[in-house]
Specification:
- This protein has a domain at about 20-85.
- Helices cover about 45% and strands about 10% of the residues.
- The chain has helices spanning about 5-15, 40-45, 50-60, 75-80, 100-110; strands spanning about 35, 65, 70-75.
- The chain has a 3-stranded antiparallel beta sheet.
């Protein structure tokens, strides 16, 4: 069964929906961030919402609330990043063609 509303009526209803507001996080200084939202941290590649909320719950990352938004102050984010463990850099020779396939084959036959 088709809807009795016209296309214009459906479009008007969609535009009347409340738009999601993001908080003002610039505090009068254009270009200088004061805080980041969880979605912005995800876009920066610092982890998904579950990971970030886990870090907040464990106390390793400080967060503040502004209305319904969870914000991470820039200073606390930088301190959290500085506290992350360094990565171990391994140097090795590049694999020869087919070497990885042979290594996987040997590992699978050894496990069986």
């Amino acid at each position: 069964m088709r809807s009795t509303k016209t296309r214009a009526e459906r479009a008007n209803r969609q535009t009347r929906r409340k738009k999601k507001r993001t908080p003002n996080i610039y505090l009068g200084q254009p270009g200088r961030r004061f805080a980041y939202t969880i979605a912005e941290l995800k876009q920066l590649g610092l982890g998904g919402p579950t990971f970030i909320y886990g870090e907040i719950a464990s106390g390793r990352l400080r967060a503040v609330k502004k209305r319904r938004h969870t914000l991470i102050p820039e200073e606390d984010l930088q301190a959290w990043i500085r506290g992350l463990p360094p990565t171990e850099v391994r140097t090795h020779e590049p694999a020869q063609p087919g070497q990885r396939r042979r290594a996987r084959h040997l590992a699978s036959t050894a496990a069986a």
